[in-house]
Amino acid sequence: MDAAVVIAGAGPTGLLLAAELAQAGVPVVVLERDPEPRLAAMGMAINAGVVDLLAERGLMERIGADGLPWPRAHFAQLWLDPGRLPGRQTYTYLLPQAKLEEHLLAHAEKLGVEFRRGVTVRGVRQDADGVTVDTSAGAVTAAYLVGCDGADSVVRGAAGITFEGSEVAFDGIAGDVEVPNGHPLYQQLGANEFNSGLFSVAPSGVGLLRVATGEFGRRPADPSAAPDAGELRAAVRRLIGQDIDVGTPRWLGRWNCETRQADRYRVGRVLVAGEAAHVHFPLGGQALSTNLEDAVNLGWKLAAELAGWAPDGLLDSYHDERHPAGARTCLTTAAQLALLYPADRVAPLRAVMNELIEFDEVNEYLVRTAGGLNVRHPATGGDHPLVGLRVPGVPLPAGRGLALRFDPSVRLDVDGWGDRVDLVTAEPSADIPAVALLARPDGRIAWATDGADPDGLAAALATWFGAPTSS
Description:
The protein has 471 residues and is an alpha+beta fold. The chain has helices at residues 12-23, 48-56, 60-64, 97-110, 154-158, 229-240, 286-307, 317-338, 343-357, 360-370, 457-465; strands at 3-8, 28-32, 45-46, 68-70, 73-75, 78-80, 92-94, 114-117, 121-126, 131-135, 138-147, 163-167, 170-178, 190-194, 197-205, 208-216, 248-255, 258-262, 266-267, 270-272, 278-279, 401-405, 421-425, 436-439, 445-449. Strands 1, 2, 8, 9, 10, 11, 19 and 20 form an eight-stranded mixed β-sheet that branches. The chain has a five-stranded antiparallel β-sheet with strand order 14-15-16-13-17, with helices on one face. The model has no long low-confidence stretch (mean pLDDT 94).
């Protein structure tokens, strides 16, 4: 075989998944149709959930140097205040997605991931022993194939996975434009709603502005053609009622308004993740956070399956956990869409929503929803309120579980799982209301206790880390 795992697609999902697998010692080949890493991508921020996820992997210190913390959040461009949340708070970072991809690529390459660029996936065949990927450069074989190849995923289609959903007539243009100081676009900084759509302008680099227009009830004349400055200028004019210069485009692309989800995330030895599994209207960084959560959820489970210690059903739990999470993201972004258009009809509802946001409980709920912070996978490790949530602010051992205790007198017996789980004693943390916990390699809490009795720990270890080794 060419590798244990082949990944189709070198976007953020494929890059992080490849790194997760490589850290666990799994040989990985990534196939990417673009001959060079892309220098342009639509995303402009990583939300709080992504910041936490990257910090757990020791990546945020480097990545954060290229970004800027932004202590605000929004739900349908209704502005929220993360600073009002109790306890520790992680903020969104303003960071172009292309820069995030650059860091993730360097991380994966450092771990030994093999990239084959300029390679197009054409078809997939699988049997009980493995997968054969038909590509423009010949056949590639592996034990498993993961499609991270976007909304038009060839892998998903070849596996017979359906991608049902809906699409709204929409004409979206986004890109970076070069402008001198004092340019009229600086007067348009911010995110604004108009009766026919959306217009936003934000700094994206020295002498660069990220401009995005979105018009509801309208379709581009040629969706496959890249937009130009004239088309962008016309869209701005229709939205704001002014004819202004839009600078010199460095790059422009299209975005649309559709919501779709794969019916299955796994068929035998073929799996899908990221936008190959779900797409929705891009708001608040929820697309990126959901995509990267797919990657870290799948990575350790696939590695465990290949290493031979995965308990029964572990790989299937990828679909069981991530499909509901993807459905939830599709729902909450659809709810935001309903609060944006048509602006004149939803204006009273937005006014009432702004009143509700003044309540701390509402503000907190929406901040956590928009930031991907309230995702809880089905609890199987007892009824402690932390179970299923992400362990906050704790670096994770690469590719391993973490048994964490804040009282050294608490006996956590992980001896039979020492090859898969690290035992660490730490100072108590006000952000973690527990005496001890067990975290999976993806950062999800599998078990926790408030007392000295570790009842349930052995069951949680067996559920997620398989049978103990004999002493």
